[in-house]
Amino acid sequence: MWSLLFIEACKLASTTTIWSFSIPILSVHSEVPVHLDFIVTMILAIGFLCGQVLATYYANGKVHQHIAITCVAAIISCVLLWVFLKDYRWALVGVFFISSMPLINIFIQVRLLQIVPDNRYLIFCLNNSALFAGNFIGSLSAYLIMKTTATNHWIVILAMGFATLALLAWLYLNRHTQRQQPADAAFGSKTI
């Protein structure tokens, strides 16, 4: 349970890092349109909506695997944004993909309810706490990076770091889960 909450906080920190500073990151280009803030806001909103619809569709499937896929997709989105940082049009594609990544919230919520079905309200409280912690850590760390370095690519690298932490936490959780399943099966066969 704690690993899942940690994954969620790290993944949200990665997304919020880009969300918070996507307009300043892209506005350094001389050829950007005057209404860039409106365009970026619309792309963030559409990406978020697409992510939630996809997550709702896939939440009935293999939720555990989709958490890992989402973490990898976040890293790829950050790399795409980093590579095309000098061309704001392609960077907007990266912003779109990173804004769809909060779909992990639904996967983690479903997974938490599978693990601890008896304490729904506690799980919802802890889940929301992880969301808020990730949002706070992502925004604050991006702000500090922007103040100390004044360069945009470090914010994207920071987002990659958070997404990588989330993936490493999933790998740890997956390994722990695989080790526990044979033990559970053996225990179940003895009792039957």
List keywords for this structure.
mainly alpha, 84% helix, elongated, disordered C terminus
Describe the structure.
- By secondary structure, the protein is mostly helical.
- It is built from 7 helices and no strands.
- The protein has helices spanning 2-26, 36-58, 63-83, 88-99, 104-115, 120-149, 153-191.
- Helix 1 packs parallel to helix 6.
- The protein is elongated and about 55 Å long.
- The two termini are 28 Å apart.
- Mean pLDDT is 79; it is low at 183-192.
The largest sheet, given as strand count, sense and whether it forms a barrel, is: none
Derived from helix and strand composition plus strand pairing, the structural class reads mainly alpha
Rg over CA atoms, rounded to whole Å, is 18 Å
Mean pLDDT across all residues, rounded?
A: 79
Overall shape: elongated
- What is the number of strand segments? 0
| Relative strand content | under 5%
Number of helices: 7
Helix content: over 70%
| Helix and strand run | HHHHHHH
Low confidence ranges: 183-192
